[in-house]
C-alpha cells in the first residue's frame, strides 16, 4: 500500500511520515508528500495530482484552504482520502461530499482511539441528560501555537452532544461567555499555553450533580498512529464517507 501525506512538513504530517518509515511491520510505504515547497530528495511535491498519481491512500493534514484542490486531484486519481483537517467552509464541505461519491473518504477531528470513544459517550449523555436540566460546557487546552479556537475536536464533542439532544450545534453553541448563558446552550472555553498536546473535557452540570468526561493526549504520536490505522482500514473500501468510529467499531459507512 502506497501512502502519501498532504501537509508532510507540518507537525502531524512529519510524525505520520516518521511512524510509517520507522515501523518495520507497517503494511504500507511512504509514497511521498505534499507541501508548499517541493523537495525532490524527499519526494515532496506541490501539486496534489502528482502525489495522488503515486498513492493508494493520502493522509491529508494540510490546510482547509487546500481541500477543494485536493478533492479534485484525489477523486480523479481514485485514491482513498483520510482527512484530518477541520474548519471547512461551505465550498470545502461540498467538495468532500462530492468526492465521497467517487472515492472512500474518512473524516476525523481527532485520530486518538480514546477521544473517538469519548465522542460516542458525549452523544449518549446528550441524549440521556435533558438540556433543560444539565448545562453542557466544553473546555479545551492546547499549545500556544494553535491558531483555531475552539479546536476542531472540541466542536466535534459539541456536535455529538447536540446530536444526542436532537439539535444543531450551530444554533446553540456559545464561545463568548460575556453575557448570560442561553437556554440549552453548549458553551466552549479555550486555553493556550506552553506545549500542551491536547486536553478536552465535557462537563455536564445540573443543580444537584456534575459529570465530567476528559481526554488528555501525552504524545502527538497517538494522532499519527491513529491516522495510519485509518489509512490501512480505508484502503480498498468502496466510495463513501467514513469516520474513526467505524475504524474502531466496524460500523457501516455514512453514505
TrEMBL record:
NAD(+) binds at residues 7-12, 84-86, 108-111. It catalyses: (S)-2,3,4,5-tetrahydrodipicolinate + NAD(+) + H2O = (2S,4S)-4-hydroxy-2,3,4,5-tetrahydrodipicolinate + NADH + H(+); (S)-2,3,4,5-tetrahydrodipicolinate + NADP(+) + H2O = (2S,4S)-4-hydroxy-2,3,4,5-tetrahydrodipicolinate + NADPH + H(+). Its EC number is 1.17.1.8. Pathway: Amino-acid biosynthesis; L-lysine biosynthesis via DAP pathway; (S)-tetrahydrodipicolinate from L-aspartate: step 4/4. (S)-2,3,4,5-tetrahydrodipicolinate binds at residues 143, 152-153. One of its GO terms (biological process) is diaminopimelate biosynthetic process. CDD domains: DHDPR_N (cd02274). GO terms for molecular function: 4-hydroxy-tetrahydrodipicolinate reductase; NAD binding; NADP binding; oxidoreductase activity, acting on CH or CH2 groups, NAD or NADP as acceptor. Keywords: Amino-acid biosynthesis, Cytoplasm, Diaminopimelate biosynthesis, Lysine biosynthesis, NAD, NADP, Oxidoreductase. InterPro entries: DapB_C (IPR022663), DapB_N (IPR000846), DapB_N_CS (IPR022664), DHDPR_bac (IPR023940), NAD(P)-bd_dom_sf (IPR036291). NADP(+) binds at residue 37. The keyword Transmembrane does not apply. Residues 1-111 form the Dihydrodipicolinate reductase N-terminal domain. The keyword rRNA processing does not apply. Residues 114-247 form the Dihydrodipicolinate reductase C-terminal domain. It is found in: Cytoplasm. Its main location: cytoplasm. One of its GO terms (cellular component) is cytoplasm. Catalyzes the conversion of 4-hydroxy-tetrahydrodipicolinate (HTPA) to tetrahydrodipicolinate. Belongs to the DapB family. Homotetramer. PANTHER family: 4-HYDROXY-TETRAHYDRODIPICOLINATE REDUCTASE 1, CHLOROPLASTIC-RELATED, DIHYDRODIPICOLINATE REDUCTASE. This is 4-hydroxy-tetrahydrodipicolinate reductase. It comes from Swaminathania salitolerans. The lineage of its organism: Bacteria, Pseudomonadati, Pseudomonadota, Alphaproteobacteria, Acetobacterales.
